[in-house]
């Protein structure tokens, strides 16, 4: 559970940068591994984005930009952000495939971008 929260936390931070040019450098050295390993924080972010719990400031930002990030397979992300988002999504998927799929279903309900997202996860592009 903690791993889920940390993954979502890191993903939140990275994704939030996609629409905010001035914050790109702020997360260049973000420790994705520590997020993936803390299930408590990961679960809190998961609950936030799934409307099942309260949100932190970063959680609110993540929740706002997550739909675009998932539906465009991180196309507006910088190279560094793509690395972090990819690592986070793969970490979330490894920790709980059902939660990963629930997240995708919420933000890409018609599955219109599922192939592009899975391609991004495999290739990083």
3D architecture notes:
Residues 1-19 form the signal peptide. Keywords: Signal. This is Chemosensory protein. It holds the Pfam family OS-D. InterPro entries: A10/PebIII, OS_D_A10/PebIII_sf. The protein is globular, with a radius of gyration of 13 Å. It has 125 residues and is mainly α. The N and C termini lie far apart (28 Å). The longest helix has 17 residues, at 2-18. The chain has one domain: Insect odorant-binding protein A10/Ejaculatory bulb-specific protein 3 (Antennal chemosensory protein a6), CATH 1.10.2080.10. Helix 1 packs across helix 3 (39-49), helix 1 (2-18) packs antiparallel against helix 5 and helix 5 crosses helix 6. The model is unreliable at 18-27 (pLDDT under 50). Helix content is 70%, strand content 0%.
Q: Average pLDDT, to the nearest integer? A: 79
The ordered H/E elements are: HHHHHHH
Low-confidence runs (pLDDT<50, min 5 residues)?
18-27
Q: Provide a count of the helices.
A: 7
Share of helix, binned: 55-70%
Strand content: under 5%
Overall CATH class? Mainly Alpha
CATH-wise, what's the superfamily? Insect odorant-binding protein A10/Ejaculatory bulb-specific protein 3
What profile does the largest beta sheet have? Answer: none
User: What is the third-level CATH name, the topology?
Assistant: Antennal chemosensory protein a6
Euclidean distance between termini CA atoms: 28 Å
CATH architecture: Orthogonal Bundle
InterPro entries: A10/PebIII, OS_D_A10/PebIII_sf
Keywords: Signal
Protein name: Chemosensory protein
Pfam families: OS-D (PF03392)
